[in-house]
Amino acid sequence: MPESNLFDYEDIQLIPKKCILKSRHEADTSITFGPHTFKLPVMPANMQTVINEQLAIELGQADYFYVMHRFEPETRAQFIKDAHAANTFASISVGVKDAEYDFIDQLVADNLVPEYVTIDIAHGYSDTVIDMIKYLKSKLPDTFVIAGNVATPDAVTALEEAGADATKVGVGPGMACITKLKTGFGTGGWQLAAIQQCAEVATKLIVADGGIRYNGDIAKSIAFGADMVMIGSLFAGHEEGPGDVIEMDGAKYKTYFGSASQFQKGEYRNVEGKKLLVPLRGSIYSTLREMQEDLQSAISYAGGRDLHDLTKVDSVIVRNTITNGDNR
Ligand SMILES: NC(=O)C1=CN([C@@H]2O[C@H](COP(=O)(O)OP(=O)(O)OC[C@H]3O[C@@H](n4cnc5c(N)ncnc54)[C@H](OP(=O)(O)O)[C@@H]3O)[C@@H](O)[C@H]2O)C=CC1
Ligand SMILES: Nc1nc2c(ncn2[C@@H]2O[C@H](COP(=O)(O)O)[C@@H](O)[C@H]2O)c(=O)[nH]1
User: Fold this and answer.
1) Which residues, in sequence order, are bridge partners of residue 207?
2) Helix axes 153-162, 191-201, angle to 10 degrees
3) What is the complex's ipTM, to 2 decimals?
4) Is the shortest distance between the CB of 260 and ligand 2 below 6 Å?
5) Ligand 2: which of 171, 212, 259 to mutate, most ligand atoms within 8 Å of CB?
6) Helix (H) or strand (E) holding 251
7) Cβ of 26: how many Cβ atoms within 10 Å?
8) Transmembrane region positions (predicted)?
């Protein structure tokens, strides 16, 4: 049955309250997520065209959260050692196939304990993910477990009951995603409403994943109940990230492809992702600085001092007005 009160980032504007700050610099964008506190409530997506080992460790050392991808599985144990040798936390991804259970057993045998593990599965509301959460929690009880991806409140409750410390919401809103086209399912077009619905029942943390197109969407995610925001396309294309620079007609690009694309899988089977070119964007630290400035400004418009104050604002639904009619 279609719902009528559904909306997405572009349909919402937050309503300003009286400012209580003398400067936007006073606004606190930090977030405690599991055992650590980070400068911003954002994380680059655990995709092979967004993050690599070197960038992950640099981000961790600079107090930004990251999740390393799972697409070179044999490098993960060494990555945990490298992160710890660099005096930062280790945040890795796993799938749900049998070999992943062997990998976890090996970590336990080697006394290698990642601080964060993300279970990275397209359809996270499944017994395979529930079983993996339980296994992780039994074998690595001190590790913070993020599980996903899900679309609905009942899925959030199921993963939390299995032991997840955070659930990741977003099926199909990503820029490199074609799940909605291939299967007819997903939160594409109502991702922000899905975050709100999931956050209403959550007793633990919520990660909004996919569909962020502007920095203001980060503030909107927090306002509607997310604790953290995972971002792919806006973090792709940076100097420090993976991928070669491609020159075309005088412009420079990097490749951004879906983790369920044929480019990731090496074959055209169960494909639910595509490949795009994104403009070369300079340093990721400039992007992070601008995200921080914009979030600080958002907190000031919320009449607050920190991220939590964003959850106290009112909003209006105004369809198709976000670019003021100027889409250039
Ligand atoms: N956030 C999103 O909207 C989406 C994200 N992705 C990303 O793509 C990557 C690959 O994801 P995924 O295919 O889950 O990972 P895997 O290819 O590792 O598949 C994990 C396991 O789940 C099974 N599986 C996958 N999809 C389904 C399904 N719809 N129903 C039942 N079983 C299923 C697979 O078996 P089998 O292949 O035999 O079915 C496999 O055993 C991940 O990084 C994921 O985050 C992909 C699509 C959507
Ligand atoms: N349906 C698919 N979703 C995918 C795929 N690869 C990654 N993703 C999801 O997208 C977000 C990033 O979204 P963006 O809008 O910020 O670019 C990522 O975190 C995954 O959840 C895929 O192949 N298919």
Assistant:
1) 168, 228
2) 50
3) 0.94
4) yes
5) 259
6) strand 251-257
7) 13
8) none
In angstroms, the CA 17 to CA 323 distance is 22
pLDDT digits (tens, 9 = 90+) for 260-286: 999 999 999 999 999 999 999 999 999
For residue 266, count other CB atoms closer than 10 A to its CB: 7
Structural domains of the chain, ranges and CATH numbers in brackets: 3-317 (3.20.20.70)
On whether the CB atoms of residues 221 and 209 are closer than 8 A, the answer is no
Residues in the ligand 1 pocket, defined by CB under 6 Å: 95-97, 120-123, 128, 149, 170-172, 174, 177, 179, 210, 259-260, 270, 272
Record the pTM. 0.96
Burial class (CB in 10 A: 0-12, 13-18, 19+), 47: buried
Name the residue with tokens 């349909």: 11
Mean of all residue pLDDT scores within the chain:
96
Structure tokens at 250: 């005088």
Q: Give the mean model confidence (pLDDT) for residues 27-34.
A: 98
Q: Which ligand is nearest to the CA of 178?
A: 2
Q: What was the pLDDT predicted at 319?
A: 83
Amino acid 238: pLDDT? 97
CA atoms within 13 A on the CB side of 284: 26
Residue 236 pLDDT exceeds 90: yes
